[in-house]
């Protein structure tokens, strides 16, 4: 247990604690944020019959505590953790419905001999588990803690890898490793005697297409403003300083402006890129000057991204098709160097309020599909992707690309089908015997259907697309590989007010016409907060966060990832299609012709698979702590 717990030193460098009794043993690493002097975990109730170890924050703990004290419960600490044991005493398994927070909880009820594992509603905090041959259940915040037990062998799950190549993430409850499951967001797993029950306590819900309330715009903007303001106020609760990320986009700018109302001074952090295609420093500077924040910035080059990518994969424990987490790992390092433990981030706003080009593209293609011969309707894609209009030859290619499956609007995955079709190309770089173990499209969709909401076909097309983004990519990548894992890699806690469940539930009630007004994305959010921001920020089109890929592993780069992509090292791989990978890397290193988007993604996938093998499969222990810890 000590060995397992200490692999998570980076998640909790301040303290460690243990509780063991017949049938159960709990270990905990603490990142002290609320009640610094007490609140050590595992923590129990007065008679030591209920024990808890959890990662995260319960933001409404003060309100819950007041109610529990009125009911006669006595508290020994000022921590949010203690609320959990008393709330469980009061509500038993229904306790989770009272929580506003982000959490992975392990709770032991000695009287019932019941272990309860719970993950927050949208998957901000990770939680993994496995069952050994002798019936022992292992669980932890990261898979490396399970491997540290000693009885579990790390082995790639070919099905999960195929899902990553196609959907960009594994479908819960799969993780990237055979035999290891993630507890899906919004789920509770209860182990009691020989019984093992998992149930969904929260999920995404949207009205049916014609069941929206007929309310004016100002009603919805008022409710959005009020709810998000309260979410920010709750998430600023801490006994340590709280800072904010500031990308220069709408979402982080709104959060920084709301946070600034609570603080005379606010520290903000951002990433700058040496490659102008990805850089947003001009917009960041606009908000810094507007809010007069105490700003810190880290500038990254492709070489630095390549160097950090080994730590990215070790911390995230998964294959991936992007390098975008690497700059955020460097940003978390900067946050920690400045003595900050908590930052607010803007994740979730695009998914919840309809901010991605994907949503606009889906709308255009559905409109085009009603008259497939219309050149005028097809030309609307140029408003989303200006390069279609600038280059006639490229325009012909993209017209053909977006026309694929155009009239198949009954496809439940219509909004994402074009993107997912690229999985066939990515699988070309994987070992044939591995690909042979991957399910066909029908089996993949069957597993996906079992995970997603069964009544989603009754929703508006925008809501269906939002649901796919939130249930898959947001929880499986954005909040994990690009969020929690990078921040916790440097012992920083990220908080995401846009993913307060009250904000999500409110946004679901808003008619789609107020989220995507024509082709104006996040219209409701812009309208609700226009007075807090400079007009050029409030009306700024969405710029997706990206980072260079192939350039990060160019010939001559001195990084662990680059060394693992050498011909000699590739020859030892049994996970990759070596000839295809060598041709890809030769093209990337030649530099005479730019790689296509799918080829760039393939480079990231290959590099991350090599690093997974290096850190987890080749007999080397994957110590969770950063080299600087």
Structure, briefly:
The protein is α/β, with parallel strands linked by helices and 629 residues long. It is globular, with a radius of gyration of 24 Å.
Could you list some keywords that capture this structure?
629 residues; disordered C terminus; 16 strands; alpha/beta; 6-stranded antiparallel sheet
Describe the structure in your own words.
There is one protein chain. With 629 residues, the chain is α/β, with parallel strands linked by helices. It has 30 helices and 16 strands. Strands 3-4-5-6-10-11 form a six-stranded antiparallel sheet, covered by helices on one side. β10 and β11 (195-200) form a beta hairpin. α9 packs across α22 (480-488) and α12 packs antiparallel against α21. The longest helix has 21 residues, at 597-617.
- What strand line-up does the widest sheet have? 3-4-5-6-10-11
Query: In percent, how helical is the residue content?
Result: 40-55%
Question: What do the pLDDT scores average to?
Answer: 94
Q: How far is the N terminus from the C terminus?
A: 21 Å
The biggest sheet, with number of strands, parallel, antiparallel or mixed sense and barrel status, is: 6 strands, antiparallel
Class from helix and strand fractions: alpha/beta
Name the shape in a single word.
Answer: globular
Rg to the nearest angstrom? 24 Å
Catalogue the unreliable spans.
621-629
What is the helix tally? 30
Number of strands: 16
Assess the beta-strand content as a share of residues: 5-15%
């Amino acid at each position: 247990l000590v060995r397992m717990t200490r692999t998570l030193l980076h998640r909790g460098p301040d303290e460690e604690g243990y509780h063991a009794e017949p049938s159960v043993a709990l270990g905990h690493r603490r990142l002290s944020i609320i009640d610094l002097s007490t609140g050590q975990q595992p923590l129990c109730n007065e008679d030591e019959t209920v024990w808890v170890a959890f990662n995260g924050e319960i933001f409404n703990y003060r309100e819950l505590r007041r109610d529990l004290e009125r009911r006669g419960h006595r508290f020994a600490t000022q921590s949010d953790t203690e609320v959990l044991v008393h709330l469980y005493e009061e509500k038993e398994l229904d306790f989770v419905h009272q929580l506003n927070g982000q959490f992975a909880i392990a709770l032991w009820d000695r009287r019932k001999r019941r272990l309860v594992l719970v993950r927050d509603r949208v998957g901000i905090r990770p939680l993994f588990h496995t069952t050994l041959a002798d019936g022992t259940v292992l669980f932890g915040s990261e898979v490396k803690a399970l491997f540290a037990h000693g009885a579990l062998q790390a082995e790639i799950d070919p099905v999960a890898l195929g899902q990553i190549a196609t959907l960009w993430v594994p479908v819960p409850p799969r993780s990237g490793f055979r035999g290891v499951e993630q507890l899906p967001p919004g789920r509770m797993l209860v182990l009691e005697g020989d019984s093992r029950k998992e149930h969904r306590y929260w999920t995404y819900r949207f009205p049916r297409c014609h069941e929206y309330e007929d309310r004016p715009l100002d009603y919805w903007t008022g409710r959005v403003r009020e709810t998000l303001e309260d979410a920010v106020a709750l998430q600023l609760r801490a006994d340590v300083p709280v800072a904010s990320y500031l990308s220069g986009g709408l979402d982080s700018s709104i959060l920084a402006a709301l946070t600034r109302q609570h603080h005379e001074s606010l520290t903000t952090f951002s990433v700058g890129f040496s490659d102008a295609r990805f850089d947003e420093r001009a917009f960041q500077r606009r908000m810094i000057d507007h809010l007069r924040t105490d700003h810190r910035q880290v500038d990254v080059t492709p070489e630095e991204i390549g160097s950090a990518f080994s730590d990215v994969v070790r911390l995230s424990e998964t294959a991936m098709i992007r390098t975008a987490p690497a700059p955020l790992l460097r940003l978390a390092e900067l946050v920690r160097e400045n003595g900050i433990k908590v930052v607010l981030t803007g994740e979730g706003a695009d998914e919840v309020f309809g901010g991605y080009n994907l949503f606009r593209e889906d709308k255009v293609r559905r409109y085009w599909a009603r008259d497939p011969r219309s050149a005028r309707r097809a030309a609307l894609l140029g408003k989303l992707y200006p390069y279609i209009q600038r280059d006639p030859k490229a325009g012909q290619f993209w017209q053909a690309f977006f026309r694929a499956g155009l009239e198949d609007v009954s496809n439940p995955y219509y909004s994402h089908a074009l993107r997912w079709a690229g999985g066939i190309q990515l699988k070309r770089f994987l070992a044939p015997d591995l690909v042979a173990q991957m399910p066909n499209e029908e089996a993949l969709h069957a597993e996906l259907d079992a995970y997603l909401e069964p009544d989603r076909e009754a929703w508006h097309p925008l809501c269906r697309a939002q649901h796919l983004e939130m249930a898959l990519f947001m929880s499986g990548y954005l909040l994990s590989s690009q969020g929690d894992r990078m921040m916790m890699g440097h012992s920083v806690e990220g908080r995401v007010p846009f993913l307060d469940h009250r904000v999500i539930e409110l946004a679901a009630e808003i008619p789609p016409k107020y989220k995507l007004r024509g082709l104006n994305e996040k219209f409701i959010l812009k309208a609700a907060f226009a007075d807090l921001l400079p007009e050029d920020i409030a009306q700024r089109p969405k710029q997706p966060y990206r980072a260079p890929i192939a350039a990060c592993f160019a010939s001559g780069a001195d990084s662990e990832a680059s060394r693992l992509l050498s011909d000699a090292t590739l020859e030892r791989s049994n996970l990759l299609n070596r000839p295809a990978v060598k041709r890809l890397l030769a093209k990337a290193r030649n530099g005479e012709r730019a790689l296509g988007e799918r080829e760039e993604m393939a480079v990231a996938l290959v590099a991350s698979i090599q690093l997974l093998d290096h850190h987890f499969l080749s007999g080397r222990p994957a110590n969770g702590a950063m080299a600087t810890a």
